[in-house]
Structures are given as structure tokens and as C-alpha cells.
């Protein structure tokens, strides 16, 4: 009897622009895996939307350092919901990973992650499974993020922009106490203590 083999369609991957050594390593890693197909690489941040529309990859690997803010991540997720977003950052903090997953990333990894773990994350992400860095050095990373609601995300963006509670209340047509309640929930879910720590999340690489 002939052995029957089922050929699986490769997972399509888009690779954003990274530092030379990181980009070269990621391309080689993907090229060597027969179950992955690189459909675009070295894509600059300002061309991501066009490239995602043109190639419709199952997974996109993004450089956190090139994103203008985590809000941009939410925009990409909203515009391309069928593409799983894997974000690589230099040394992501637990709060940053929670925020990225809350805003639409499927995986958050450090750029120093070992090759086999990056491949594992890509395959898991392609199936919609969330991936976080291992809990080390005292990290306390939950198995899954506690997601922000749409209103909490709006409050978070305004807090990061330096808006006062009264301004946020007027913008969103809610009471100041409601803004305070949302702010407390945002701080708790993202693992920060105050708006100063929250603001550092939007610009950290």
C-alpha cells in the first residue's frame, strides 16, 4: 500500500523592516522552513498597509521600534483582521506585551528570542494562539492578556497624549469620575501604576 501524504499549504509571512542583522536572520529562518512562505520582506513601516493589502499574509512580523505607537498596532489589526501580527521588540516589559496583545498583536517576543522559539511563535500565531515571552527575571506575565474595552482604549490614548481628566471627559462626553474609573482599569490591565508610566509605553522600543 502506498503511503498517503497530505501536503499542507505553507503559512504566508510578511516581514517588516528590521535592523540589518535581525532582518537577515529572520529571512534566513523563514526561508529554511518549508512550511513557511515569505511573501514580502524588508517592508518599511509607511508601506505596511499597502503590502498587507497586496500580499494578504497569514502572519506579519513587525518591528516594535518602527511603530509610531501601540495605537498604530491597533489600526493595523483593525484594517487587516485576517493577518496575525507578531511583534518583536528589544526588551519588552510585561506591561508592553499586555498592551500590544490588547491592541491586536497575536504574539509579542524579544528580538533576542531563540530561532526555534520564533518559528514556534509564527506557527502558533498562524492558528490564532497568543504567544508571550517566557516569564523570567521576576516577570509575572499572565497566560492571556486582559483586553481593554473600546472605551478604555480611547481613554488610554488620551492619557498617553497628556490630556487632563476634564479634557478627556469633555471629549468623550462622560463624567470625570467615569474617566477616573476607566483610567484605573487601564492601569491595572496594562500593569502600570500611573499616567507617567503609561505614557512611557507609547514611545518605548
Which geometry do the CA atoms define? elongated
Low-confidence stretches: 1-6, 136-145
Rg is 19 Å
Number of strands: 5
The overall pLDDT average reads 84
First-to-last CA distance: 56 Å
Biggest sheet strand line-up: 2-1-3-4-5
User: Please, what is the CATH homologous superfamily of the largest domain?
Assistant: Response regulator
> What's the number of helices?
9
Derived structural class? alpha/beta
Query: In the CATH hierarchy, what is the class of the largest domain?
Result: Alpha Beta
> What fraction of residues sit in β-strands?
15-25%
Please state the oligomeric state of the protein chains shown.
single chain
Number of domains: 2
Order of helices and strands: EHEHEHEHEHHHHH
CATH fold category name of the largest domain: Rossmann fold
Tell me the CATH architecture of the largest domain: 3-Layer(aba) Sandwich
Largest sheet: 5 strands, parallel
The portion of residues assigned to helices is 40-55%
